[in-house]
Amino acid sequence: MSHVPTKFVAPDLLEAASSWSPAYFTGAAAVALRASLTGQVISDLGGCVLEGWRASETPGALAYDPRAVTTPVYRQTNIGRLRLHLGAQHWEAPQITGRWCIQPDDIVLNKVAPIRAAFVSPNAKRHPVDGNSLIVRGLSRTQAAWVALCLNQPGYEQLLLIEAGVLQRVGLRALASLRVPPVPPQMDGLSARLSDALDAQMLVSEALHRTRAEANEATSAAPTQAHDLGMGVFFTPDLVTIDSWLPFATALRSEQAALDEQLGWMAIGELSSSSDRTRLPCAPDGAQVLRLRDVGDDLFVASGDAGDEPLLSRTLGKPLVPGEVLLSTLGSSFRAAYVDDDAPKNTFPVDGWVRLRFRETPAAWALLLSTDALRSQAARLTVGSVQQFVPPDALRSLRVPVPTREVRERWQRAVERHHSQRRSLDREWSVLMRELSAAIDVVHQPFATARSRANEVVQ
Prior knowledge:
DNA binding; restriction system; DNA-binding; Type I restriction modification DNA specificity domain-containing protein; Restrct_endonuc_typeI_TRD_sf; 2 domains; four-stranded antiparallel beta sheet
């Protein structure tokens, strides 16, 4: 009796695969291959595959282009599942034109695994994508949404990478030859909703970006004293304290003293009170943890699914309280969060957060704490062998300007409006993702020998 497992592969499936590699005929890849037997490649749908902009910022390099220094570019980190994640530079007006610049109904795909495909909506800023990305262009909105949805499935990712070798990169030829199943009828309505949802998210984010730009402008008056610490600098004795004798920390205290005296900036410790840092004694049922990576640049605390049980020794003892401001102790990636009234209940921050309570307009102060000037201050408060984390008490020495009450109240309303709109859009997005997952299930489930993994579409 043979102990070697065998499996019969139908001739049409063998013909559809690029090779006879067993990887094509097992697991999620086999489901995708079977489902797409009657489908079409991108060129049959009227589309084409383009490579991103290969440009170097280094003079003398073969691909040197002086425009690369100042042109905002979508890189692999900006490509999410079905949507683009924009940085501050992407809100600028497009500076160049070319086939590498995104257009409505494009699909933008990163080359290096794990693969993510984003659908481009009309309101997206038409910047170029870099050379580590691919663009699918020329499809209708319905086709593009369906292809992007398929590309975010594990099975299609495996089909793209089976012949990729050790580097696990998607090649232009592999993407151009990939078949996708026929577009189901329900994608007409779903693609329109997807485009509208992405546009709405873009508008809400852009409104907050404009408010953040005002806050950055308010902090741009900080004196930029360039101390050449390598050549030696004299500081007055009162600036050398036992908190840190590091040269850049002493230089920061000098800068903060100038901010106090010349511009009237104030220390965070004078404007707020901090909560105690006792740890969670025991985890309540359904407790969630807010980690540092759970908050982006928009001050927003998103609702999430209950994950792993909190690590009691690293989790603060009280759940999030509406109105409080959270500051990250990770000075190398400093960020702030504002806890609004609809923030998720029963959520406990990890001890990498410092909790502050301001007497009024807390969202406005959180906005100021997220500016470039404050990130610069926090980066110079780091301690330890790797210079990453800031002692919690040291964060209270951060200096911020004190805008008028009228300005702070306007910023407060802007941040609260953003958070409210963002929560509403997130709920709509969750509903839309479930419907898109159902559309994937309907097409692929008949070909699955086991439970389909299609619910992993997008998080």
